[in-house]
Design a protein that fits this description.
Elements (H helix, E strand, L loop, with lengths): L3 E3 L2 E6 L2 E6 L3 E3 L2 E4 L5 E4 L4 E8 H17 L4 H14 L8 E6 L4 E4 L5 E2 L6 E3 L3 H14 L4 H15 L8 E4 L1
Antiparallel strand pairs: 1-4, 1-7, 2-3, 2-11, 3-12, 4-5, 6-7, 7-8, 8-9, 9-10
Helix pairs in contact: 1-2, 3-4
Length: 177
């Protein structure tokens, strides 16, 4: 049975601010099931931004688990991410989840995977999902060649990715800290 998939999350940092955005498209195979999904949200008293790419139901399970880790570790992003990654890799049920999380606070941006990875990308720029490479390339060019804010970089880069990736649309959700 095919899974629902949500794609293209991007985060960028500039001038002490971090923005995280995602498109709204959810697909089942090659069919658009929903065009206005909300794949980006604020967690832990609006101090953490999180977005997902991959299986939708799997991502909601991971959001719940990640929120519980944030509560347990008093909002410590890195510790919560590492603890989630450990559980994800070792728990028999979680191991089958097919999604990735992109999370950020004012200091750090991380990608959390089911392989037990917690990655802090260079330049504070992270992208996941099928349109991620397109959005990341556009964001890097904009960061290096413009004075756009973090939110503007994310918005324009996701729009570029939507022009190139059939699994990405322009119904964007953006959050900034």
């Amino acid at each position: 049975m095919e899974q629902f998939h949500g794609t293209t999350i991007l985060s960028a940092r500039r001038d002490g601010k971090v923005a995280l955005g995602g498109d709204g498209q959810v697909t089942l195979g090659n069919i658009v099931i929903k065009a206005s999904a909300r794949k980006v949200r604020r967690l832990y008293g609006d101090r953490i931004l999180a977005g997902f790419a991959g299986g939708t139901a799997d991502a909601f399970t991971l959001f719940e688990r990640f929120e519980a880790k944030l509560e347990k570790h008093q909002g410590n992003l890195l510790r919560s991410a590492v603890e989630l990654a450990k559980d994800w890799r070792t728990d028999r049920v979680l191991r089958r989840l097919e999604a990735m999380l992109a999370v950020a606070d004012r200091e750090s941006s991380l990608i959390i995977t089911g392989l037990g990875d917690v990655l802090e990308p260079e330049l504070g720029l992270l992208a996941i999902g099928s349109g991620g490479p397109y959005a990341q390339a556009a964001a890097r060019a904009l960061l290096e060649n413009s004075q756009l804010s973090a939110e503007e970089v994310v918005r324009k880069s996701l729009e570029i990715a939507a022009d190139l990736c059939i699994y990405t649309n322009t119904r964007l959700t953006l959050e900034e800290l």
